[in-house]
């Protein structure tokens, strides 16, 4: 074992959604997905293996964590211990920098930071695809938070073939794209993502069409990223998100993550875009909050429009972010 290790990983927003598993045990998704890593939202995690404790310990933002969240952490740590040939429990300390106001889940950044820090602390030298496979055991979306920029998660057919890797994109697009998070609710979801995926995959008559749509959207998105075609990227991302949510409406029993404001915003920006030519597109994960994709020169106009039409919503702006980074245990990271 080496010294205790800090790692930092950033959260991401999926442009081609991950929705449904073909193997829940291995966390293998039903379809490939593609995301953008975000600059301002991240998790710092310290891992220290020690024989001085009996079982793994996990604290998040100075609060001890037990139950299912701890079980997910231990699942990642067990794999690290197996790879490193060690048995010591670990003390895991995490600090989230994913504000509630951003409406973004922190599981992606949290599990990616855990995988990176634990591997280093155990003396392992893993490349990014291997780290993404490790992070996948804790959270599917964490697979895509090992790398920065645009990242593709290959669904694969077993553990070895289900991993993430960066995809090429025009440098101007990567520098120019902005994500405007619009938050209507920070309350827990009535149906969690895991349960929602499982119900959709098992009962929705639209689910087979969804997986086919996701594959076709990805096929169209890859050349659009390379060409730097923001309009095409936005159109594909918006359509893909709405197709995912359509599958939930066709589940049995049907359900939706949308609030009335969610649909009003999506429809509103479509009308605004078509009437005024403003390059702004919506994407929505498994929740009521909307992420708007736009270009840097148009951020102020988008913020002004939101203030006029949705004055009570919380709005946070970010851009493309980096992959994992490391800090020695003696170095103070941002509190």
TrEMBL record:
Alphabetized GO MF terms: ATP binding; diphosphomevalonate decarboxylase activity
GO cellular component, one term: cytosol
Any one Gene Ontology BP term: isopentenyl diphosphate biosynthetic process, mevalonate pathway
E.C. numbers: 4.1.1.33
Pfam families: MDD_C, MVD-like_N
Residue ranges occupied by any Diphosphomevalonate decarboxylase-like N-terminal domain in the UniProt entry: 9-164
Enzyme class: lyase
Mvd1 C-terminal domain residues: 180-315
Keywords: ATP-binding, Lipid biosynthesis, Lipid metabolism, Lyase, Nucleotide-binding
Keyword Lipid metabolism: yes
InterPro entries, per the entry: GHMP_kinase_C_sf, Mev_decarb, Mev_diP_decarb, MVD-like_N, Mvd1_C, Ribosomal_Su5_D2-typ_SF, Ribsml_uS5_D2-typ_fold_subgr
NCBIfam families xref list: mevDPdecarb
Family as reported in the entry's similarity comment: Belongs to the diphosphomevalonate decarboxylase family.
Protein name per the record: diphosphomevalonate decarboxylase
Organism: Schleiferilactobacillus harbinensis DSM 16991
């Amino acid at each position: 074992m080496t010294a205790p290790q800090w790692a930092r990983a950033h959260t991401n927003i999926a442009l081609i959604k991950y929705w449904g598993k073909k193997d829940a045990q291995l966390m293998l998704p039903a379809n490939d997905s593609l995301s953008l890593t975000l600059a301002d939202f991240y998790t710092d995690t310290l891992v220290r293996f020690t024989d001085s404790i009996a079982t793994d310990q996990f604290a998040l933002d100075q609060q001890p964590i037990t139950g299912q969240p701890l079980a997910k952490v231990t699942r990642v740590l067990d794999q690290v211990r197996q790879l490193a040939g060690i048995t010591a429990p670990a003390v895991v300390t995490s600090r989230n920098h994913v504000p509630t106001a951003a409406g973004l889940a922190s599981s992606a950044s949290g599990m990616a930071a855990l995988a990176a820090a634990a591997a280093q602390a155990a003396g392992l030298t893993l490349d990014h695809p291997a780290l993404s496979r490790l992070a996948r055991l804790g959270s599917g979306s964490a697979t895509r938070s090992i790398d920065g920029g645009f990242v593709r998660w290959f669904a694969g057919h077993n553990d070895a073939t289900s991993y993430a890797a960066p995809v090429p994109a025009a440098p101007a697009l990567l520098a120019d794209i902005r994500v405007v998070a619009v938050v209507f609710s920070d309350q827990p979801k009535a149906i969690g993502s895991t349960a929602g995926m499982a119900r959709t995959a098992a009962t929705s008559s639209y689910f087979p069409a969804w997986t086919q749509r996701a594959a076709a959207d990805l096929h169209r998105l890859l050349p659009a990223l390379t060409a730097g075609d923001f309009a095409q990227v936005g159109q594909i991302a918006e359509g893909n998100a709405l197709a995912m949510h359509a599958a939930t409406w066709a589940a049995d029993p049907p359900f939706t993550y949308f609030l009335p404001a969610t649909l009003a915003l999506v429809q509103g920006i479509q009308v605004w875009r078509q009437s005024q030519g403003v390059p702004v597109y919506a994407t929505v994960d498994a929740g009521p909050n909307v992420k708007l994709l736009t270009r840097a020169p148009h951020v102020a106009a988008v913020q002004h429009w939101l203030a006029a039409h949705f004055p009570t919503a919380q709005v946070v702006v970010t851009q493309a972010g980096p992959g994992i980074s490391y800090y020695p245990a003696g170095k103070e990271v941002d509190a």
